[in-house]
């Protein structure tokens, strides 16, 4: 499953570049025709990975309930975030993946709660969750690229 994490890490490097090359104002801007902004999409993929991989495995997540409630599926940008929030999101891009790698090697993933996704695919295992997460992150990278053009 380490190869699945490397795919995620590659996507996260692209997201890190977005954070590094856009101002706080650009990260917070919701262009006309969109319901979310760059920072929401980046935070959303972190939250989703934690929900799919950790919560469905019955394990504690590395993010706060507040972050989950702000960026989970069905939420939208509620207002601008501070640079402190952007810095926290940036730190979570890789720290969450590093810990996932450690936890996989340590064998902490023992259980998995089956979950039907909104696309109709049913996640039945950790490997399913990691595969689906990569698909999900790719979708949001596409949104992010469209958002960039609309800024």
Quick overview:
The protein has 151 residues and is mostly helical. Helix content is 64%, strand content 3%.
Description of the structure:
With 151 residues, this protein is an all-alpha fold. It contains six helices and two strands, in the order H-H-H-H-H-E-E-H. 64% of the residues lie in helices and 3% in strands. Strands 1-2 form a two-stranded antiparallel ribbon. The mean pLDDT is 97.
Uncertain runs with pLDDT below 50, 5 residues or more? Answer: none
The main sheet orders its strands as: 1-2
State Rg.
Answer: 15 Å
Straight-line distance between termini = 37 Å
Beta percentage is under 5%
Instruction: Give the helix tally.
Output: 6
What's the overall geometry?
A: globular
**Helix and strand composition category:** mainly alpha
Kindly list the characteristics that best describe this protein:
single chain; 151 residues; mainly alpha; two-stranded antiparallel ribbon; 6 helices; 3% strand; globular
Helix-strand layout with pairing:
Blueprint: H1 2-20, H2 24-28, H3 38-54, H4 65-71, H5 83-106, E1 115-116, E2 122-123, H6 126-150
Antiparallel strand pairs: 1-2
Helix pairs in contact: 1-5, 1-6, 3-4, 3-5, 3-6
């Amino acid at each position: 499953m380490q190869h699945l994490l490397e795919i995620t890490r590659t996507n996260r490097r692209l997201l890190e570049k977005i954070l590094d090359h856009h101002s706080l104002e650009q990260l917070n801007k919701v262009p006309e025709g969109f319901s979310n902004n760059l920072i929401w999409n980046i935070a959303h993929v972190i939250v989703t990975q934690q929900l799919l991989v950790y919560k469905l495995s019955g394990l504690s997540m590395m993010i706060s309930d507040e972050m989950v409630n702000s960026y989970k599926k069905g939420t939208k940008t509620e207002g601008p975030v501070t640079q402190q929030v952007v810095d926290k999101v940036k730190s979570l891009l890789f720290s969450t993946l590093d810990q996932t790698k450690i936890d996989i090697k340590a064998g902490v993933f023992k259980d998995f709660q089956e979950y039907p996704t909104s696309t109709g695919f049913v996640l039945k295992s950790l490997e399913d969750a990691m595969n689906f997460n990569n698909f999900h992150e790719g979708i949001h990278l596409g949104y992010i690229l469209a958002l960039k053009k609309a800024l």
